[in-house]
Give the backbone structure.
Amino acid sequence: MSMETNKIFGAILLALLIGTLSGFIAEVLVHPKALKQPSYVIAVPESAPKAEAAAAGSGGPAAIGPLLAKADAAAGQTAAKACAACHTFNKGEAGKVGPNLYGIIGGPKAHAQGFAYSDAIAKKGGNWDYEELNHFLFDPKGYAPGTKMTFAGVKKDQERANIVAYLRSLSDTPPPLPQ
Ligand code: HEC
């Protein structure tokens, strides 16, 4: 083969190669194949705290202090209708299935004279301060296993704080709000 033929042959080969390649590239550009799986995965640590998870009950209740600062006692009174099936709220009123709740905040656990408390509450010890009540109302059975209060708890943080703000109003001398 002469030099000339070689050059021509080479040029044709090159042209074919470029044609095939650009066809291939065009194919990729015009018909992108959908990936079956994402090509990268963002790793999120299992233990990452999630507000939703806390609200769903796996993480415990949010601290009550900041929630009480913006709590609405009137809304709490409405929400406390869920408690009224078992509890009474006015001073001196007799209890129902549950004890009367007047003066509950700051009062001792098992505060109602003559009410037949379970050991879970009667032997718990201490007073119902804001945070104790926050935990009990979030998950009664988790806080006091064996309690007679058959109530699932109030999982919504602000609603629980509203109820606590309402309970606070049921007192001759409401204890100061937590910082
Ligand atoms: C199904 C009935 C029922 C409902 C609903 C219920 N409770 Fe109770 N509650 C009880 C019973 C019964 C007890 C006594 C628990 C024990 O002795 O273990 C109790 C105990 C309590 C105590 C402790 C009282 C003390 O003297 O130590 C508080 C505080 C309380 N309930 C608040 C509430 C609030 C607030 C709600 C609504 C968000 C509510 N409960 C809903 C039945 C109920």
In short: The two ends are 96 Å apart (CA to CA). Confidence is low (pLDDT under 50) at residues 48-57.
